Amino acid sequence: MTSTADAARPPGRPRSVRADEAIVEATLDLLAEGSTIETISVEAIAARAGVGKATIYRRWPGKDALLRDALRRLKGDPPQPSGGSVREDLITLVSAIGHNVDPRAAQIMPCLVPEMKRSPEQYAFYQSIVEPRRAAMREVLRRGVREGELRADIDIEVTMAMLTGPMLIQRVLNWNPDLDEATLPEKVVDGVLAGIRAR
């Protein structure tokens, strides 16, 4: 008799998690070293990862799918608000904007901007990464309106732009080196809340 586990297991050799990791890491290393999305090749990724091209194509249908997975890994999962106060949840979300644990992100993410301007596909991919983060912030703001903590007439999308813009410009461009990055999220949130709190 075939067990449920046996029935669910796909035919052929099981995927090697180690190979998956090596391929994604090689992709991110090449991007951090200056390869662009357009010029990076599956051949170069395979050589850096120490695998054959066939190993990559067994896991991803093509370069674009691999790049999407690698960049999602680089960005990590969006932060999860605790559901406490609106202020605390907004500080959690704003603190994560432009902050990346992986140091390669500082080299890779700014280089993606020209790619997004040129390519509708890359822009759509960027939106797929950003939208879950926007959705989390949108829900915190809507909760604040529902519970009477925030004004009912606020423009949610504009409010999110006001919360996000200062963090991006500071963390991506270091717009003002005199700003304290450790306290900036809290100051941005408090500044915006001063204008949108219910009276």
Give a short summary of the structure.
The chain is mainly α and about 200 residues long.
Structure overview:
The chain is built from eleven helices and no strands. The chain is mainly alpha-helical and 199 residues long. Helix 2 crosses helix 5 (63-75) and helix 6 (86-95) packs across helix 11. The model is unreliable at 1-13 (pLDDT under 50).
Structural Rg: 21 Å
The CATH topology label of the largest domain is: Tetracycline Repressor, domain 2
CATH class type of the largest domain: Mainly Alpha
Estimate the mean pLDDT confidence. 87
Order of helix and strand elements from N to C terminus: HHHHHHHHHHH
Instruction: Note the beta-strand portion.
Output: under 5%
Integer tally of domains: 2
Q: Count up the helices.
A: 11
Helix/strand-derived category reads mainly alpha
CATH architecture identity of the largest domain: Orthogonal Bundle
DNA-binding region: 41-60
Protein name: TetR/AcrR family transcriptional regulator
InterPro entries: Homeodomain-like_sf, HTH-type_TetR-like_transc_reg, HTH_TetR, Tet_transcr_reg_TetR-rel_C_sf, TetR_C
Keywords: DNA-binding, Transcription, Transcription regulation
Main attributes?
DNA-binding transcription factor activity; transcription cis-regulatory region binding; mainly alpha; Arc Repressor Mutant, subunit A; 199 residues; 11 helices; Homeodomain-like_sf; HTH_TetR; Tetracycline Repressor, domain 2; 2 domains
